[in-house]
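Hi F.,

I've been meaning to write this up properly since the lab meeting, where we talked about keeping a consistent format for the predictions we share between groups. The idea is simple: the sequence comes first, exactly as it goes in, then the structure tokens exactly as they come out, then a line or two of notes. No screenshots and no reformatting. I'm using this chain as the first example so we have something concrete to point to.
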Amino acid sequence: MNTSPITNWEHVGAYFTFGPHSIGVVLSIIAAIGICVALIYAMFRHENQAFSEVNLLASKAVDEKLDLPKEGTYADTLMENVN
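Output, unedited:
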């Protein structure tokens, strides 16, 4: 079964599967952009969730240790000490 369109390999500089402006190139670029966008979206979603969990745990720990009111966050108490 010989399915190669090249019958002679002499003087062959390069052989490309997809040519310029072909559907293969367009689909490859769209797939690469889609994967990058999905990765960035998942990263932002994970970071926001992790930050909110850490902020909640830190504010609970500070409230319990310093007997502070339940409102506010850990960052708010730090900023009060700076000013």
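Notes:
The CA atoms of residues 63 and 70 lie 6 Å apart.
The two ends are 80 Å apart (CA to CA).

If this format works for you, I'll send the rest the same way.

G.
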